[in-house]
Amino acid sequence: MKERLYEILNKEKAHEIIPFLKQLTTEERKALVPTIKKLHREISKIVMTKNSYHTSGSADQHSIIDIASFVCMDQKRYGKNYWSLFRDKEQTGKILEWGCPAWFSDFINDSIDAEFTAFNYQDILGWAEKGYVQPRPELLGYHLSLHPYDLEKFPETLETHFWYLCEFPSKSLPFKKEWLPLIRKLIAENKIERKRFLRECLLAANRNFNKNVTGWFMDAFNVLAPSDEELIMLQDELMSGLASVQSKAVNTMLDHLKKIVQDPAFRTGEFSHFLPNLLSSEVKTVVAAGLAVTEKIFQKKKSDTENLETALSAAFVSKDESIQTKASKIIIKYIPVSEKMKQALSHYADNILANVRPVLAQYIDNRQLELDAVDPEKLELINEECRVQELHSFEDLMFLLPQAIENPGTYYYDLALAGLVRFADEADAGSVKLFEPVFQKACKTIAKWEVNHFNVLLCNLIINYGLLLLEKFPFQLKNLEKIYKKTREDEATREAYSTYHKKLKSIKDIYAGGLAMEPFKHIAVGVFNKITSGDKTPLLSTVTHEPCWISPEALVERFEIYQNKNIKPDDLDVQLALQHCSLEKTSEALQLAGKKLKGEYKELLLFFFDKNAVPKGKFEHPSWWMTAGITRSPEMTFEEFKDFGYEDIPKEFLTGIHEWKTIDSKKNSYYPVELNIRVPKYHLKKRQHQLFLEYFIAEQKNFSEIPSFIWSFPNTLGNVFARIIKDCLFYSGIAEVYERGLVLNTAQALHQMKKPLDAMGYLFLGTIFLDGDKVIRGTAAEIWLEHVSHKVMDNARLGQVIGLHEKLEWAPVKRFTDLVQHHMLNVSKDHNLALEQLFTHILLQMETPVTNLRKILDIYHEVLALNQSEADKNLKEKLNAWKENSSLKKICNLLLKK
After folding, report:
1. Any idea where the DUF7825 domain is (predicted)?
2. What is this structure's pTM?
């Protein structure tokens, strides 16, 4: 039986596969499944040619396996790799005639979740007629929506299936352009009931369709231009549509409700129930449209507006001045002063803007809003709360390693290396069983096409360690050999690709991911050597506190271990340890180093921990001293280091400060305004005492692990920020997911670090305040809020960055002003004072008025009112010039009066 299948496949006798399968019993077909799966793997292997690639199997061989899979497998095993079978409709029909699987109907019904199908609406009707499929409404609606040409071919289509289309349309794409003209034609011919279709369009608002599909139904409703009588009849659906999560749907409902407000049948009471949610929307067009309908209702002078009056107060959830002004005008014009209205507005008193408060003086208590000042917590990088959990046993290590794989490039990676050094030889016949799932996870991770570079190192280390354990515990770890063999087979299929780097070999021979990763590979190789030699001397660079810090006392104690053992530490490990060390509080560590250390260790740390100390002693390891100097005082040049041979490294990389400017490149319409940062080129120069830093600055290519280098240079972040800015933030309109991912990961790492910013830090933060991604901007606001609370934010420097960008309109001003209104305004008294300083220095950079400058001035005026301050005197001249602009005249005059 197996031999016959091999013969059919090898000789490509596609015409013989169906007669062969027909003669088999059900049990024999089941027995063939493992063979079919094996053959499928073989013919699916990729074969590379000079200019292209293809699978090892021919078209006939793939057809043979497709048919055999369909006939012999159950639904679960057949999976979703079935579309090619259905391309040959005649062949599919023949197979179904004699061997339609019991699961075929469910299988086809489930196809609505597939990305692609090789059958269509007509095929489904044909199969249904023959009893192969009992189609669900979802299946018919989905497939009909993909084919507008089938509407009039079958009587049941317009009668029944078309309405399934309204309820269950395609999830993947909007309707084709032919649909609307065709539906209008069929409605005109009375083949589709107009009123029913209008109702279905409105019901689409709450059917959880995607944005495109919902939008299509709204467009269809608008194109049909319903009369006022029809709108009155559809009031239930129009009102319920106001609760839609899609803003286009809500706006469509409001536009049509506005047309029938004057009709006596309009249900004001029902509309008032929806109004608070409408006015609380984050979408300004929804709020504005809600206010427009509300005003129309008040113009009717109806008596049943009591609920509407109190609901109107929800408009003050918005901090947009135009919205609040519009709402306040409606209140003044149509709603008399009453205790009930005062009570309703009191809930939003904190949110009512300074410019609006005087207008509502009769309705609200117009006292100045008093916010509490923030009681600043002292910012501590090293404290008990962030101390990492120390490992105590081999079992602890087995628990940690999967976490390290799931969090590549974080302190988990450091702890994993340290744990392997300390506990690798402590496995016994009982505990070693815990290693199998760790080994399996490492193999599964490393076998992927795209693997984080830190995981390449860690998983390779775990796998090679596992092979050592397998020799020692062959019985307990017998499954490791099978897992490893399968992983090697998977990797072998990829080796034909020239871009693929083999990951399953000795750690010293693998590709770590480029120059920047070389120091980490070097340290990982050292760890493996420690494992094989039984050397338990700890690494110097393992963090002691989240997310990336080593306490200075711990660094002294580790140096003492090397001193007492008379072991020379690894050069790059020493440098990474110095870079990781927190220099926030070093007085105790200074005393400890003076007592416990001697020679170069002592002199190095006395210099490193004392900001005012000069380097002295024997400089046996120039790279240690240079790294200590850069980390401690990047802005200083030490005369004592002049003969170390590092003078060829551009000064920008040593200080971490790079020149930048926002430039108007009008010649380039794609990037009209660019953030231009000068990052010099550097080529790695092989030297006896290589700096850890050199590997990163010599790396030319962009790669996803760059944000992880924040943890390697936490005291000197400038070069990492410069790299991200140059590659990902040169233009505010950049939309690539990859670049945005890098920026977001960098922003989140900066937020997690909680360290005061340096020059490049302010440039990065100021730039991401204007980023096109909402999550990135929100992270920027969180960083600002926290740094203001800790009194470590220089708002003048931050304002200069934002102002220099926006004076050339690097990004839409609205991104920033919306962020301020929704996340940064009125957080506390201190935050409002910080905002005043921030806006002052943004405006000081401005010259001629930019688009939406008024929005910045409106918020500045609001902040001044909250702080009971006046506009900065250095701004007076600019304001006098700007008030010549008609759109700015009013706000400039208000600011000049302050």
Report:
1. 657-897
2. 0.79
